[in-house]
Design brief:
Blueprint: E1 3-10, H1 14-22, H2 24-30, E2 37-43, E3 49-56, E4 62-73, E5 77-82, E6 88-97, E7 100-109, H3 112-138
Antiparallel strand pairs: 1-7, 2-3, 3-4, 4-5, 5-6, 6-7
């Protein structure tokens, strides 16, 4: 298995969910699993734009990440190609729903062996990432 899928309903319209991605300060606040923080060096949130960051783990480890935003369709879709190892492509879609927005998260790894070895990390990390996105979207303005 190389592809991991998860989704989440967030009680906010797609434009509010998309804003948590398109604003680099907000993205830095929530991106990553629980306990992680980020230092962004570059975040060009446009098709073909570069994204360079260091994720700081709760154990004190630093994890450099290099990615490209392959696609950015406002309020609809974001595609991230993670160029650092492990290499993957993440397709995030936003769909209006009765309660707000359904966020679908489809992460496809380049190497099936790598995906298999890190599945026990990836699956809960993706859920935690969506937990953090939900909390960011629901934050009080200016909070």
């Amino acid at each position: 298995m190389t592809t991991f899928r998860t989704s989440r309903d967030i009680p906010a319209p797609p434009d509010e969910v998309f804003a948590a991605f398109s604003d680099a300060a907000r993205l830095a606040r929530w991106w990553g699993p629980a306990g992680f923080s980020n230092t962004f060096h570059l975040c060009q949130f446009v098709p073909g734009g570069r994204w360079s960051l260091v994720m700081h783990g709760p154990d004190g480890g630093n994890h450099p990440n290099e990615s490209v935003f392959e696609e950015v369709e406002p309020q609809e879709k974001i595609v991230v190609r993670h160029e650092s190892k492990p290499r993957y492509r993440l397709v995030i879609t936003l769909r209006p729903s009765a309660g707000g927005t359904t966020v679908s998260w489809v992460q496809t790894f380049e190497d099936a062996d790598v995906a298999s070895r890190i599945e026990h990390i990836v699956v809960p990390a993706n859920e935690q990432n969506l937990d953090r996105l939900s909390a960011e979207v629901m934050r009080e303005p200016g909070g």
